[in-house]
Structure formats: structure tokens, C-alpha cells
Amino acid sequence: MEKYLYQRNTSKNSDFVMWMAFPGIYSFSMSSLGYLWMFKTLDELEGINIERICSDTEKTVYPKPDLMGFSFSFDMDFLTIFSMLEKYGIPLKSKDRDIIVFAGGPVVSANPEPYRDFFDFFIIGDGEDVNIKAVEICKNATNKQEALKLLSEVDGIYVPVYPQNVKKLTKKLTECIYTPIISDNAFFKDTFILEMSRGCANRCGFCLASYLNLPLRCVPYEELLNTIELGLSNTNKIALLGAQISAHPHFNDVCKYIYDKIQEGQNIEMSVSSLRVDAITPDVVKTFVAAGQKNTTLAIEAGSERLRKVINKNLSEEQIFNAVKIARDNGLKGLKFYGMIGLPTETYEDLEAIINLAKRLKQENKGFDISFGFSSFVPKANTPFQWFGRVNTKSLEEKSNFLKKELHKLGITAHISSIKWDYWQAVLSRGDATLCDFILEVYRQGGKLGAFKAAAKKYNIDTDYFACSDWNFEQKLPWDFIDINPGKEFLKQENQRLKGFEVAINKA
Ligand code: SF4
Questions:
Q1: Based on the domain organization, do 255 and 309 belong to the same domain?
Q2: Given ligand 1 and candidates 195, 198, 202, which is best to mutate, with the most ligand atoms within 8 Å of its CB?
Q3: pLDDT tens digits for range 418-464
């Protein structure tokens, strides 16, 4: 059952229909803050009938849309997007259809080029405000061509048939966005999710969540408390979201606010997205424990201080040990550490440093559950590490097996993402428009790993060039026309500054 936290206007007296589409199943869509918030802002508009569509939607209220918008958060979402379009008989390529299909989200904001044949326009950056404008244009235009021409003149909108430079949209966070519909069928059942901050000032060299969302913006404290109250008047489960919520100047105050309520007898379950190690304080952990959390995730990214410096994650071993002690002493049952393998300049010494760290953490914290999760480095467009290629798949699989084996010997669970899938992610992430037919072929051949290989062969695409080659600064990048502010010059400087650590450390 769904509970709307706003008043819906269901008699719009309009024949214009929009589908807000989520490339995944219903339960995931109901835990997707950005998707649900977009739906709310458009649902409140007069004059459009809007409906949510997911990959497992069986029956639609409106038989056919005039406009369809997709939330595009992961590189592989294109597979589900294509199958959803085909399910409703909508041609996949923009040039073959009359209805307008667009996308927004981190993947296409960073680099829309591999998908440019399939979407009529893209929203680059924060879409909350421009969404409304875009929908109004589509509704009022007399035909698709007129709509696209007008859309191409709007800041933050990229229309592939009218290519030009586009500046990413950055919204001030004066209001707090939250899940405006709560559902007992959501992946996070009956949970009210709210956004505390957007972006991260830490600027780890590989991190799209940071660079795409600079500068870090924090919701005003009063607004946060009002939103928390709105949530708690509708459910007892709340989740605080943000790339680095502990950077919010009132993070500790928010924890205390929740803690005091629990002490006064209110039943509250609270969860948070992963935390920085230095955010772990006794009061924060006590709040988590009182709010029913048994463990949490800490992102350390790399095992050695050297490599953490190179990626800009300046975190000492002492801080890590201290965080574990605080977590353990204040009632958490375990911690999961998140890291990456295959980061630029990584050697086996860095991997041994992870094993060593894990061993000592385990020895010093007997009975405390310590586990690890890893993914492999994927160079992301519009980050300082966009010029670095990945290490080849064979070497990464050897590294992955080495880590798993050594951690297993210590009795530590380690989950490592699929190296092969990460490779294809990297191809897409640094891809250009020549990949459009390739991804269509991948979809036609079933979308499994073999389909990627077969499609690359069919179109004679050098996928290693996109995934594994180091690129130089002079090279023209497929996404150069997107200004994420700070621009390319800043990313170059960051790249060199971080490489400089490597040189300095080697000389020392
Ligand atoms: S601390 Fe986390 S969110 Fe922030 S830049 Fe680093 S990896 Fe990204």
C-alpha cells in the first residue's frame, strides 16, 4: 500500500500524458529518493496527467504517453530502459518515434554520448527545477521538432540533434527533498528517506558523486528538523541520505535530536548511508544503536596510507583503529569496510596492506564482526581520474582472488564485485557516440557478458581503448561539451596534484 505525503490532484482536465519511468522493479523505485521527488514535483503541476512506470508494471492507467522520462543512475540501466520501451511498442531510437523520451541522473549527466541516439534530450545535473520547464515546453509545443528546438535553448538541457556546450545545473539546497510516497512494498519498507546534503567536499580522485555535485551543499538545520518531523508523523523508519552526510555541520545535532526522542520513549529506526571513518564518535554510535542499527559501513577505499593519499582519501591507520574501537565500545556489533582494487598506482604492497590491516583489526577486536566489500576501479567521466585506464581484467581477477583467499584465511568475509562487469561499465563510462549501435546490439543479444563481447566484435570496437588506455590531457574527450563546473582545467590540476603525491612518496 502507498501513502502519499502530499495532496494529489487527480482531476487535471488534460489530455497530455507523461510516464515517469524507473529502470528497475517497483520495490526499488519506491526507495529511490530522486525518482519519487521528481514525480511529486511534476504531479503537482496543473495540466499534465502523470503516471509512474517500472520494469514490472503490469497495467498502466493511460494507454500511451506523450512524454516519457527515465531516471538513469547506473551504466547498465540502458538494458532495462530498452526492454521497457519495447514492452510498450515505443521505438528505441529517437528518430523513429513521435513521442519524446528523455533521461536524467548521474550517468547521463557525466557522459550522455553512448546513449545519444536513444533519448531526445538529457537533463544535465540537478533536475528539480528544469524538469518542470522541460515538461511545459513539451506540452505546449505543436510538434516534437519545435519542442526539441526550444529545449535546446534551456540551460542544463542537452538535445543531441542540436549539439552545443551545456552547463551542469546546480541547485541550492534550501529545501529538503524526501520520499513523498511511503510504501510497505518498498525495498526499504515503510521508510522515509531524506536528503541531508548533496555532494562531497572530499574530492576523492575517482568519485563521480563528489565532482558531479560540487560544491557540497547542506540542507539548513531547521528545514532538516521539520522534514524529520514530517517523516516521523508518518512512519517510525527514517533514513538519512547524502554522499557524505557527516560533513553536514549539524550531523551530530541531528543524531542527538533523534537520540533524545528515543530516550523519551519514541520508537524510531534510523539508518544512514556509509560514513567517513572520522565521523564515528561515541554519541553518533549510541544514536545508531538506540535506533536499531547493528552495524554500519565505513569507506576506506584503499589499504595503504600511500594509496589513500594518491586518491585523496586522507585517512590514517590510527583513525581507522580508533573508529573501530568507538563502534565496538558503544554497542555496534560489526563494521563493513568498503574499498576499491585496481586504483591508479596500486601494487601488491597496497593489497598486502589491506590484509595486514584486516588481520590487526581482527586481532584487536575479537568477537566484533569485520567484513570487507570491494569493487574495482572504473574511470568515470568528469572526474580527475578520467584520464586513467583500468588495469587489464586478468590482473584484476588475480588481485581479486588474492584478496579473497587471504581474507578468507583470516576468517573475514569479502565480497568483490564482478571484474568483468566493471570492465563493461568502464567502456560505457568513457564511451562516445560510436557505442550507440554497440549497446543496441548488446541488448538485442540478451545483455549478458557474452552479448557485450559479441557486439564489440560485430562493430569492430576497440573496447580496451575506452576501458583500459591511459588518455592524455591533449586528447579531446567525448564529454568535453559538458561543463560540470569546476571544469576540465581544474580536473587536470587535481589529477596532477594527486599524481604528485605518488612522485613525492617515491622520492622520499
Ligand atoms: S569521501 Fe566518499 S563521497 Fe566523498 S569524495 Fe570520497 S568517495 Fe566520494
A1: no
A2: 202
A3: 999 999 999 999 999 999 999 999 999 999 999 999 999 999 999 99
Domain-terminating residue out of 293, 324, 340: 293
Distance 218 CA to ligand 1 centre (A): 15
Give the count of domains, the chain.
3
- Residue 73, domain extent: 2-167
For residue 245, report the distance from its CA to the centre of ligand 1, in Å.
11
Sort residue 125 into left (φ over 0), alpha (ψ -120 to 50) or beta. Answer: left
Structure confidence at residue 506 as a pLDDT band (50, 70, 90): low
For ligand 1, the distance from its centroid to the CA atom of residue 106, given in whole angstroms, is 15
Q: Please report the atom of ligand 1 found closest to the CA of residue 276.
A: 1
Q: What is the pLDDT of residue 201?
A: 86
The β-bridge relationship of strands 2-4 and 181-183 is antiparallel
381 and 465 share one domain: yes
Residue 95 shares a structural domain with residue 49: yes
- Cα-to-centroid distance, 182 and ligand 1 (Å): 29
Ligand 1 interacting residues, C-beta cut-off 6 A:
200, 202-204, 207, 209-210, 243-244, 276, 299, 313
Residue 411 Cα distances to 356, 425, 444, angstroms? 13, 31, 43
| Region class of 483: left (phi > 0), else alpha (psi between -120 and 50), else beta | beta
Q: How far is the CA of 202 from the centre of ligand 1 (A)?
A: 6
Nearest to 32 by CA among 195, 176, 171: 195
- pLDDT of 152 above 70: yes
Cell of 22: 524507473
Q: What is the pLDDT of residues 371-426, one digit of tens each?
A: 999 999 999 999 999 999 999 999 999 999 999 999 999 999 899 999 999 999 99
The per-residue pLDDT for range 198-220, each reduced to its tens digit, is 998 889 999 999 999 989 999 99
| Reported pTM | 0.94
pLDDT of 202 reads 87
Q: Are 185 and 27 in contact (CB under 8 A)?
A: yes
In a domain, 358, yes or no: yes
